[in-house]
Backbone:
């Protein structure tokens, strides 16, 4: 049945649930084409279409299901019959204002599982469909379900990158891109939360504070040598008795929050000579430093600073997104 670019102001029902009497199904042979149509309310079930496929446009393509390509629907009700969702359902560039799922348990606006099962029946699944559902859920204040849909979209994108091409192979570039996306999604919860990165930064900060607590990793800054000429030398380390308390904390702060300017302990900086001391072990009653020979404390501090110039903008963007979503509620 073809009803392309039509208007159904009173709705279009092919399925509904009737208490005690089971499903009421209008069976349409082959497929229902509602491309570009405007519909106030549409109700559809997985049993709305016969198993026998129809010829689409005389091109020899045999298809079944419903086509909502570029359709505008005020309310789409998916009748779940025998735990099965409507399929196939083509939602390319469709604009659905309100989603509803109807089952024997009753009517609901939809869980993440409902939307994912429905989208699994879309033979032409696109990023636009995911984003449309996500925006719709955010506007309804259903942020958790919106985040779940966003994560599912990211998984789908990664799977698409690993799909073999015509030659049956996946190029190395696509594999690298898929792996990069996986790393990004793992670190940011698929760009839905800043807390994973914040936790990583906090743990890293604690580790840096331990490293900078060893006097062997610290030498005077150029400003301190100039100010205390004749008193400090470039290779001098602070006394172990004096280098404790908050001193390592402030050195770590300066490198983990690059935009912050703290004057505390500014006379000292990470050492550029010898390897980074990461631990001290006792041997014959004496504490001996364990070093990373190829990495100095200064090199380590520069790496920390450089990476945090990248991490903080990402954290702030993700946090601001969450903040404005909550602000609009």
Residues:
């Amino acid at each position: 049945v073809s009803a392309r670019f039509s208007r159904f102001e009173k709705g279009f029902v092919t399925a509904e649930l009737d208490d005690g009497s089971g499903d009421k199904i209008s069976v349409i042979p082959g497929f229902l084409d509602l491309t570009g149509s405007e519909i106030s309310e549409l109700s559809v079930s997985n049993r709305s279409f016969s198993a026998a496929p129809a010829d689409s446009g005389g091109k020899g393509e045999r298809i079944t299901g419903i086509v909502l390509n570029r359709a505008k629907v005020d309310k789409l009700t998916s009748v779940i019959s025998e735990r099965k969702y409507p399929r196939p359902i083509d939602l390319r560039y469709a604009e659905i204002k309100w989603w509803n799922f109807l089952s024997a348990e009753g009517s609901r606006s939809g869980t993440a599982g409902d939307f994912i099962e429905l989208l699994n029946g879309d033979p032409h699944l696109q990023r636009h469909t995911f984003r449309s559902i996500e925006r719709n859920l955010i506007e309804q204040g259903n942020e958790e379900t919106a985040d779940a849909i966003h994560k599912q979209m990211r998984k789908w994108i990664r799977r698409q990158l690993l799909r073999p091409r015509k030659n049956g192979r996946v190029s190395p570039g696509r594999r690298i891109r898929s792996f990069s996306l996986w790393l990004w999604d793992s670190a940011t919860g698929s760009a839905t939360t800043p807390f994973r990165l914040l936790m990583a930064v906090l743990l890293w900060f604690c580790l840096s504070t331990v490293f900078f607590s060893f006097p062997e990793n610290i030498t005077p800054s150029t400003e301190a040598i100039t100010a205390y000429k004749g008193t400090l030398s470039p290779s001098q380390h602070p006394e172990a008795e004096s280098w404790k308390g908050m001193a390592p904390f402030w050195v770590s702060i300066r490198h983990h929050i690059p935009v912050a300017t703290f004057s505390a302990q500014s006379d000292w900086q990470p050492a550029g000579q010898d390897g980074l001391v990461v631990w001290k072990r006792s041997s014959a009653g004496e504490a001996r430093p364990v070093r990373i020979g190829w990495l100095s404390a200064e090199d380590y501090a520069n790496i920390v600073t450089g990476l945090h110039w990248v991490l903080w903008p990402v954290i702030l963007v993700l946090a601001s997104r969450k903040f404005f979503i909550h602000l609009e509620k």
In short: The first strand starts at residue 7 and ends at 8. Residues 160 and 166 are 14 Å apart (CA to CA). The mean pLDDT is 83.
